[in-house]
Amino acid sequence: MRRRPPNKSVPGDPNARYSDLPSPLSKLEEAQKGNSSAAFAGTMARVFVYGTLKKGQPNYKHMINTAKGLAKFQGRGRTVEKYPLVIAGKYNIPYMLNIPGTGHHVAGEIYSVDDQMLQFLDEFEGCPDMYQRTLMRIEVVEWEGKGGGAGEARAAADGVVECFVYSTMTYPPEWVGLPYHDSYDSSGKHGLSYVLRESRD
Fold it and tell me: CA–CA separation, 73 vs 129, rounded Å?
């Protein structure tokens, strides 16, 4: 049974609660405020993926399915803070536990996505019950982003960008004792291959 303390604050904002987690429309509100440090390029949200949605992984097909929205690969990065990345559950699903300062700097890919894709990702990730979408600082390791405007270029040049990340605070306590990974590969030496949704019981 996953734990979900109803009043637990969101890391990084002691006043935020689960009900305050960013909605797909919040990026438009931030853009209207002119917040140049927010994780947006124009009307596109910036998302960091670290698990099965990466290139070469079982669910990458969704990132390139334009029927679900638009996702533009921007580059590769890793979390500025350390987090535990575990592979857990009956279907060997990768989870980044939202415990800053524990684990490793987690590697992943940075995408700019439109509102339709962001809504799809929220549904796909079971947000906010299974995962919660929060802003995290990502260190840019490799940047290929084009056409993002001056703000995008400045962010990449600075080496750190803010991205939405699907991590979880709603996990069984025993997951904290699982092995921590710095990068996810479904076919890795861990031997815990991801089970696709269409193949599950």
Answer: 27
Q: Cα–Cα distance between 45 and 113 in angstroms, integer?
A: 5
d(CA 64, CA 80): 27
Show the beta-strand stretches assigned E in the chain: 40-41, 44-49, 71-79, 85-88, 93-96, 107-113, 132-143, 160-167
Which of 81, 109, 125, 152 is the catalytic position?
A: 125
Is 30 known to be catalytic? no
Angstrom distance (rounded) from CA 53 to CA 36: 27
Residue 128's nearest CA partner among 15, 1, 17 is: 17
In whole angstroms, give the CA distance from residue 83 to residue 105: 6
Q: Model-level pTM?
A: 0.77
Q: Rounded to an integer, what distance in angstroms lies between the CA atom of residue 46 and that of residue 41?
A: 7
Which run of H or of E encompasses 48?
strand 44-49
Could you check whether the bond before residue 128 is cis, i.e. omega within 30 degrees of 0?
yes
Residue 83 forms beta bridges with which residues?
104
Weakest-pLDDT range from 17-21, 67-71, 76-80, 194-198: 17-21
According to DSSP, the residues that pair with 94 across neighbouring strands are 87
Res 39: pLDDT = 44
